[in-house]
Amino acid sequence: MKGNLDIGDFKKLSSDYPLLTAKNLQYWYWECEPGHSLLDIAKVTGASYSRVQRFMEKHGIPRRDKSEANKNRFECEFKKSAFLETMQSEEFRAKISIASKKVWSDPQNRKKMAVIAQNKLSEKQIDILYLASRFDGLFQADLVPVLKKDSTNISGALKTLFERGLLRREKCDNLNTKSYRSLQFKYFITKGGRDILTSRLSELIPEHKKRLSDRAVLYTNLKEKIVRISFGENQKKLLKVIIECGRPMFISNFYAAVNLDSKAICKALTRLSMRRILYRVRERNNNSLRDNPYQYIYSLSELGERLEDI
Fold first, then answer.
1. Predicted confidence band of residue 233 (pLDDT cuts 50, 70, 90)
2. What pLDDT does residue 33 have?
3. Mean pLDDT across the stretch 54-81?
4. Does pLDDT of 73 surpass 80?
5. For the chain, domain boundaries
């Protein structure tokens, strides 16, 4: 117990609990650092917890709210360590688990929590909704350099907004992708997303509004750059061959036209097909010297025909 206790005039103290006075209670509870709890005061005075509580009410001594009590608890080292040990115990975790299951098993509680969560948005989610409202659709890969977050965080935020009905998505070709697959989800804002964004924008602080404007400008600058897909050296060679040929080609034709081994050619053609730059189908090659005359024949897709300066 910290501090020198001023026990006041002993003539005014009760014979049963001589330390239980309004002056001592005020000092222990509010003036001492860290403040004593009702249980601490009960142990010092020898009175019961309920008697100390009634004594405080009678003398008009206010009590801490739950937030202040938790803060005061963590200012006292032995209370903090005891509290953390209790939270980490198996018994405490089991009680929390049972209580959580009981709360979430009630449909009414789940509906209430869903309504509360529907109106809550993180700063990252607000940024995504704002960009989706300003531009005609967003790819996840386009958001990474703008939001300056890793793709995993952005993927989680997009999934949450989609599941809550604030964004809709459809598969489109992303010409700026560095992935092997150019067909990716493109996200568009819904009416519900636009409504909740409008209500949240009025609550934002000026610094957040300025950041939103800066990110919109950055996204505009990125989209104004020349759209060009990056290819590996082997892929460039094969694309030049099929463009110069001007017609579909069997895989055996590439063997003769390009100075590459068969594994490298197969790998490059597979990646171009996965990125939907080339289409491929199995057809009979009458000029084949193999036992199985059926081979893949490759042709440029609509996306491949729009390529420039490979």
1. confident
2. 77
3. 79
4. no
5. 10-86, 123-223, 233-305
CATH fold of the domain at 123-223: Arc Repressor Mutant, subunit A (1.10.10)
∠ CA 43-45-48, nearest 5°, is: 65
Whether 123-223 and 233-305 share one fold: the answer is yes
